Amino acid sequence: MSTAVAGAAKDASASTSGIVIPEGFTLHTENSSHILISSKEEAFLNPVQEFNRDLSVACIRVWSEETNREKQAKWKQAQERRARRETTAAEGAKKVKGECSYFRAHRSFGAGGGLFNGRVWAADRLCYSDARTEDRDVHMSDLPQISEGPTKIREYQPYKFVLLEALSATGLRSIRYAKEIPLVRFVIANDLSESATAAMRRNVDLNGLGPDADTCQDGCLGPSALDLETKRPSLGKVRVNEGDACALMYNHRTEKKRVDVVDLDPYGTAAPFIDAAVQAVNDGGLLCVTCTDLAVLATTNYSEKCFSNYGGIPVKAEYCHEAALRLVLNTISTSASRYGRYIEPLLSLSVDFYVRLFVRLQSAPIDVKKAASKTSMYYICSGCQSFFEQKLGRVIEKVNESTGAKNYQFKTQTGPPVPPECPDCGFSLHLSGPMWSGPLHDSQFVSRVLEHVDGNLDKYGTSTRMKGMLTVAKEELNVPFYFTPSKVAGVFHCTTPPLEDVA
Fold first, then answer.
1. I need a labelling partner for 43 at 20 to 30 A (CA). Which of 76, 261, 389, 408 fits?
2. CB neighbours of 490 closer than 8 A, spacing ≥ 6?
């Protein structure tokens, strides 16, 4: 890294006027973050993806605030339970202390002990020998101690999370996460390319997020970056790692080494990284996935490639982009199920040339068993594009009337639901899937993200588009696929009815 870049690092966050741009570099600014792009094309940056980065910052920030509130509520409950235990212990100690005073006031013996109520007592111990019972011996130091001073007031410390970006390229996304999300503890920015990691270190230093001057800057985080937090707290808020993305995530798959958020934004498909990613995320953590191969996901031109990447056959219809989202969700769900985990889609969008998904991961055997009932095959009509769902499994829920406990039975599904030809137009039906048939969004989460964007319009360069996409997602029905009046009218050769009459 040049001396000019290092000297400008501290002033980068204030304004671009204080940044010295070395020869052969151009400055790219996005919100409050700045990066230097080399003319040698060290790493790939797509400016069109600003909407993707804006949306990711907003969603992760809202998720982090929600997670912090949940942990704070659990902390308060734990403090209340602890206070109740301390109160009970104090009351018990007072009672025992009062009984000890009673014995001292009524015994008529010296320091060596004596006889009281037919029992032999020792002076410094609550000890007696009785013919009806065994010898009992309780020393005064064994009794609960009553706190004399005031109870120490404990304060809740906000939960800071760790984020791993497996494919960082220039590091712009990681830098924005570190600067724009208050609850970030640190970000692990990884890339396999040596030139890309060099560009990342340069850009991290430019934004003042790198390690201190007296800290080793070799960039090697070892097998677990989390272990280094307590040993070397000055490693910086963005920690650059050069290595294979899957290997890094597999190194974080043990429970103590997991991270809270994993972001996958590859050039093409994210399929090779999903198995490692679902193991590296904490319970309740967030998995963010981008896939840019819509030529495979949203058409039937490469159905064999779609099956090899995502384990399903795509759809050729006007709702093919929604089917692409459901194919990726099914891949994440099946990968997570292998390890006793299940998914909760928070937001799933098809944007321009890619799909972007935000999924929460949890561990629960009973919910893993429900995955088959949220997976379906679809019969798609080649004429009118009607669709017919064939679920792979079904769940029977029985509630105990006396206790209210729920009992689940998991059964196979009957089929097929339709004859070989479409019952509406007579055209042949094509099979697609398996794919996710559950919800694509969490409406409450989408509402909170929308509220956040409304309150921070000046912080996102694509806020107008964000509001539009989030509003559409919030208003969507929780059912697979859709139809448009113009397409239906074209199939039956009739006039398209007004949208007001249809809606």
1. 261
2. none
